[in-house]
Design a protein that fits this description.
By secondary structure, this protein is mainly β. It contains no helices and five strands.
Length: 64
């Protein structure tokens, strides 16, 4: 599993978030299913991750 730290910059429909990673890239993430990640607001630091076999994209895993 690959994980990156970033910051929420936009709230999207259906729980999606637009996140700017620490390396400057911007990605769209979905909340992790079955996990209590809490509510992330604009400007919140978050950790996003993707599994090697995951085809659907990034997911919001936790907030530091």
């Amino acid at each position: 599993m690959i994980a990156f730290d970033g910051e929420v910059i936009k709230l999207m429909p259906l729980g999606g978030r637009r996140v700017r990673l620490d390396n400057g890239h911007m990605i769209t993430v979905l909340p992790s299913l079955g996990a209590q990640t809490g509510v992330s607001l604009l400007g919140d630091p978050v950790t996003v991750e993707i599994a090697f076999n995951q085809l659907k994209g990034w997911r919001l895993s936790r907030q530091p």
